[in-house]
């Protein structure tokens, strides 16, 4: 299935306004059926598995997938469905929770750097270092626990503070890119009405009660603040090397299709190949074949 992916990517080369980006299926794609979308995702999963095999064997590049979104945006389901075909041996999912005491004792990007994928691997961040310019932007009081010089009260957090953090993040991602790590960032763009519907489902459907958290409802009160924080973060950190993909998340299956296509598109740009076999290795293969053929035990 072919899909025009250009409407879902922002690389920082023009102005960015989050309100201009759809949370639902674009009109051009509304004729797609659920069955067709699921079949396409299954095909993409098989293609991703083949590409991962080359990525893992070659050990020259790696892939870092960053998923961000408000509560109930569908990050867990997205990762589960889109990455269903990958080899677990070469894949790691990292979920960044509230920082531990050890993490708070280091710089705010430390726990991100140590989780970057090794050569040949795929690492998936379920939330990421962007929490440091999203949650902390909405709740700047969190910064008081980070042992930051000159930050002794919330009033010490100036607009320049956030600009420096955006610069740090851009430089970190460019460093990763220069070292063979392909960085793809996905914001699951959910509408406020759809989030309310999903929260109600979690309350009203017994098999979804376990997903409900009162903290999610408290954070919903800061909806407008989070929208502004995401707009600023995306506008200041999208680059050609590490673009942001704005995924319409009101329709979970369509969003999954777009993400699977974008990941394959990214991998297709790499010169992936299985390692060439040298003459000496070929000779060793022939020797081993001869020995096994002669072995009748």
CATH architecture: 3-Layer(aba) Sandwich
- The count of β-strands is 6
Shape: globular
Summing up helix and strand content along with how strands pair, one would put the structural category as alpha/beta
- Spatial sequence of strands, sheet with the most strands: 1-6-5-2-4-3
Major beta-sheet overview: 6 strands, mixed
C-alpha Rg (nearest Å): 22 Å
**Span of the ends, CA to CA:** 50 Å
Uncertain segments of ≥5 residues (pLDDT<50)? none
- The figure for the number of domains is 1
CATH class: Alpha Beta
Number of helices: 11
Keywords: Kinase, Transferase
GO molecular function: kinase activity
Protein name: PPK2 family polyphosphate kinase
InterPro entries: P-loop_NTPase, Polyphosphate_phosphotransfera, PPK2-rel_1, PPK2-related
Description of the molecule:
- This is PPK2 family polyphosphate kinase.
- It comes from Lacticaseibacillus baoqingensis.
- Residues 33-268 form the Polyphosphate kinase-2-related domain.
- Keywords: Kinase, Transferase.
- InterPro entries: P-loop_NTPase, Polyphosphate_phosphotransfera, PPK2-rel_1, PPK2-related.
- With 297 residues, this protein is an alpha/beta fold.
- The protein has one domain (6-294): Rossmann fold (3-Layer(aba) Sandwich), CATH 3.40.50.
- Helices cover 45% and strands 11% of the residues.
- The protein contains 11 helices and 6 strands.
- The chain has helices at residues 34-58, 75-82, 101-104, 110-113, 135-138, 159-178, 192-204, 214-220, 223-237, 252-268, 279-294, and strands spanning 9-10, 62-69, 91-95, 122-126, 181-189, 244-248.
- The chain has a 6-stranded mixed beta sheet, with helices on both faces.
- Helix 1 runs parallel beside helix 10 (252-268) and helix 2 packs across helix 10.
- The N and C termini lie far apart (50 Å).
- The mean pLDDT is 96.
């Amino acid at each position: 299935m072919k899909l025009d992916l250009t409407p879902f990517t922002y690389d920082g080369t023009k102005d960015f306004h989050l309100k201009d980006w759809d949370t639902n299926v674009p009109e051009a794609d509304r004729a797609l059926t659920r069955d067709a979308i699921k079949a396409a995702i299954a095909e993409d999963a098989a293609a991703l598995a083949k590409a991962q095999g080359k990525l893992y064997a070659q050990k020259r590049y790696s892939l870092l997938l960053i998923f961000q979104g408000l509560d109930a945006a569908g990050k867990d389901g997205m990762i589960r469905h889109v990455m269903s075909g990958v080899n677990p041996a070469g894949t790691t999912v990292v979920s960044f929770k509230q920082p531990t005491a050890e993490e708070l004792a280091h710089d705010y990007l430390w726990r991100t750097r140590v989780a970057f994928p090794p050569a040949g691997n795929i690492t998936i961040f379920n939330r990421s270092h962007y929490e440091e310019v999203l949650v902390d932007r909405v709740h700047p009081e969190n910064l008081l626990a980070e042992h930051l010089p000159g930050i002794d009260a919330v009033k010490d957090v100036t607009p320049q503070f956030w600009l420096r953090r955006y610069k740090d993040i851009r430089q970190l991602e460019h460093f990763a890119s220069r070292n063979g790590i392909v960085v793809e960032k996905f914001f699951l763009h959910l509408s406020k009405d759809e989030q309310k519907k999903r929260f109600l489902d979690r309350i009203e459907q017994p098999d979804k009660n376990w997903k409900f958290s009162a903290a999610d409802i408290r954070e919903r009160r800061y909806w407008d603040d989070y929208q502004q924080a995401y707009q600023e973060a995306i506008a200041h950190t999208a680059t050609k090397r590490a673009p942001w993909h704005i995924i319409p998340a009101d329709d979970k299956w369509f969003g999954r299709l777009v993400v699977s296509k974008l990941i394959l598109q990214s991998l297709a740009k790499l010169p992936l190949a299985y390692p060439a076999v040298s003459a000496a290795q070929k000779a060793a293969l022939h020797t081993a074949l001869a020995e096994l053929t002669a072995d009748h035990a």
